[in-house]
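FORM 12-B: Structure-to-Sequence Request
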């Protein structure tokens, strides 16, 4: 399935592909479960395979979300650090084109529609930011892998981090939905609109096909 998707993307003229690698829960007892290297085996084998299909690892990106709380993905802080230190180093050794670190679930001092509390035993250090923690494993002299970041960044903050050499690229997801004029807002310095419809916004089917999809207002100035 993955290989076919990659081949179709290449046939369609894609410059590269991004594999979304989120979720930690794993009760397998075979070669893909148990130890950290076993639990990382699937994504690493997949990267190796699709790199050959697409023409090289530089065309492959991997998105990770170490602090995620969705889809049974929450783990202890120590396990998270052990797992993602191993995985990131293995991906950089393979010279993948980019790694995207998503901050969903981290306590970065910003309340959003996706904010959620972590239960006892799964708490993070106050103000913990996975980008600042793991970024140095990706951005260092001699590394060919680009660091992309995601989740609740303002444009000014992202530009600052780029100038400081801490990140390379910003990936914008949800704001593109409720800011149909997002690029124009960035160019003109207009603040982003906020999602005022809550965290359970889905895209149909509704009586009106465009509800919650392309019915968001543009800036008036």
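FORM 12-B RESPONSE
SEQUENCE OUT:
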């Amino acid at each position: 399935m993955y290989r076919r998707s990659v081949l179709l993307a290449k046939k369609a003229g894609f410059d590269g592909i991004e594999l979304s690698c989120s979720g930690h829960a794993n009760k397998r007892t075979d070669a893909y479960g148990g130890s950290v290297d076993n639990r990382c085996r699937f994504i690493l084998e997949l990267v190796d395979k699709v790199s050959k299909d697409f023409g090289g690892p530089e065309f492959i990106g991997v998105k990770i979300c170490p602090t995620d709380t969705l889809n049974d993905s929450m783990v202890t802080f120590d396990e998270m650090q052990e797992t993602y230190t191993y995985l990131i180093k293995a991906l950089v050794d393979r010279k993948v084109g980019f790694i995207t670190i998503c901050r969903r679930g981290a306590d970065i001092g910003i309340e959003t529609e996706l904010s959620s509390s972590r239960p006892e035993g799964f708490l993070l250090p106050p103000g913990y930011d996975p980008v600042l923690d793991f970024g140095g494993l990706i951005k260092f002299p001699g590394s060919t892998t680009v660091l992309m970041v995601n989740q609740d960044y303002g444009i000014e903050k992202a530009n600052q981090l780029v100038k400081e050499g801490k990140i390379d690229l910003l990936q914008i997801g949800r704001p593109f939905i409720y800011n149909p004029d997002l690029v124009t807002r960035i160019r003109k310095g207009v603040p982003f609109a906020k999602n005022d419809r809550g965290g359970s916004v889905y895209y149909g089917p509704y009586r009106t096909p465009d509800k919650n999809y392309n019915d968001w207002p543009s800036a008036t100035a």
